[in-house]
Amino acid sequence: MTDHLAANGGVQGHVSDGFEAVADAFVANFAERNETGASTCLYVGGEQVVDLWGGTANHRTDAPWTQDSVIVVYSSTKGATAICVAMLAEAGRLVYEAKVADYWPEFAAAGKGEVTVAQLMSHQAGLIFVDPPLRTEQVLAVEPVVAALAAQPPLWEPGTTHGYHALTYGWLAGELVRRIDGRSVGTFFADEVAGPLGLSFWIGLPKEHEPRVAWLRGAPAPTGDDLDLMRKIAGRGTNGGRALSLDGAVGAFQGDMIFNTRAGRATEMPAANGVTNAASLARMYAATIGDVDGVRLLSPATVDVARAEQVHGPDESLVLSTRFGLGFMLHNDELHFGRDGCFGHYGAGGSLGCADPEAEMAFGYVMNQMGGGIASDPRAVSLLEAARGCL
């Protein structure tokens, strides 16, 4: 398979027999879907069967995407954070049905005393943005945004509806981890997940790994129906627009996209600034649903609890219909994971990490060319469908 890959756009890596269709789909993304640089990986039964990378890590310098390249994966980070919370639940240190304020007393302010951990993890808490807004420097410092979320009233009565907590989910779940464990979620993840599995995956990137980071390339400007949809979802003053950027605090910084800056990658933003590659995303999910080189993160019973549907229907932030378990996106028409029972998380621009427990399959895809949609990017979907077709 190596010669076949080299002859098709310089894609590198390995593909086990029977999974050549995944390589073909990966090559096609470069030829047909405006891919710049990317990696994809697939585990089946705890074994890696696909690991591919290719293209350009930095379109301004033409530096190649290598096996060591990593990239900010936006909301695919949420899956890693959800795994940390699930590990605390499995250890008996957290109960999803308990009140958040049982672990974080300050959170009870402004009518939030009855909000459960399950409601917080499934985007029902009504804290989709910070009001009044904070400055970028305050958001990067973490503590001011955590304090503000604890103090403010919910936008709706928690538990009555749901809306995607695009950024605030991470600080809410992260503070829950810190209050229970004492470590920040980034440190917990490094110690309990990334370290044992040997992942190249960080929530709060250490400075020494900065040279490995690929450069994010902005999405093409939407037109026509896509433009109309984006205006509904993320237009100025909409719930989605406020949630996705915290009223502009998470946008441009130091003259560039915030996640193209050291400050944007160094902070812990557990909903959005995870830095990783496809191999680590897939390996993490593989160890969530099975044994990977002697490491298993969650029991089948905990996985079943975490992927059980909590909400499904119109989303107060994204306008579209969304479906969530306890921190994980679940399959529906708008959030394509292949079939019911799969769980994981898309990231803005196209990245995806997910698992199918019944098929013992775990999948990862990351890229630096941002796509224009909210989820179900055609590049990720084509790879995922190719993988499923090989089983």
What key phrases describe this protein's structure?
single chain, 391 residues, alpha+beta, Beta-lactamase, eight-stranded antiparallel beta sheet, three-stranded antiparallel beta sheet
Task: Provide structural commentary.
This protein has 391 residues and is α+β, with helices and mostly antiparallel strands. It has one domain (2-389): DD-peptidase/beta-lactamase superfamily (Beta-lactamase). The chain is built from 15 helices and 15 strands. Strands 1, 2, 3, 4, 12, 13, 14 and 15 form an eight-stranded antiparallel beta sheet that branches. A hairpin with a 4-residue loop joins strand 14 (352-356) and strand 15. The protein starts with a helix and ends with a helix. The mean pLDDT is 94.
Which homologous superfamily in CATH is the superfamily?
DD-peptidase/beta-lactamase superfamily
Tell me how many strands there are: 15
Largest sheet: 8 strands, antiparallel
Residues in β-strands, percent: 15-25%
Instruction: List the domain count as a whole number.
Output: 1
**What is the highest CATH level, the class?**
Alpha Beta
Share of helical residues = 25-40%
Structural class of the helices, strands and pairings?
alpha+beta
- Topology as H/E string? HEHEEEEHHHHHHHEHHEEHEHHEEEEEEH
State the CATH topology.
Beta-lactamase
Query: In CATH terms, what is the architecture?
Result: 3-Layer(aba) Sandwich
Shape: globular
Question: How many helical stretches?
Answer: 15
Average pLDDT figure: 94
